[in-house]
Amino acid sequence: MKIEHARREQGIRQQREAKQPKGLAALLSKVSGIKLTRCQVNHHQDAKRQVAYQYERFDMRETQRAERVQLQQRHQMQRLDQKRKLAAQKQSHVRQEKSLKASFLRQHRMRVHPGRNTCRQ
Predict the structure, then answer these.
(1) Residue 70 region by backbone torsions, left for phi larger than 0, else alpha for psi between -120 and 50, else beta
(2) pTM assigned to the model
(3) Which residues contact 8 (CB under 8 A, 6 or more apart)?
């Protein structure tokens, strides 16, 4: 953005220099005050352009700041979601392990005591 601004400014300066009167016309514009008026107009235009550039920079910074905050919030939500999923996965793993142990114990009891009915009334 700074480079673009500098290039525009340089282009404007070059255009102004190319439009400058030469020889007798330069002397007459200086004596009559036209040159002074032209310099004041140029200065006013430069100031307006500089203010517009400052506003553009400010807007860009604010936009980037808002995007950065939004990205941080999204990352925080992703971290919390990942943490929640990991906890659910651990809980599921514990339930599966408990169920597997109970199944193994049931099978072991059936092998040790084959005639016993596992359902008591």
Answers:
(1) alpha
(2) 0.53
(3) 49
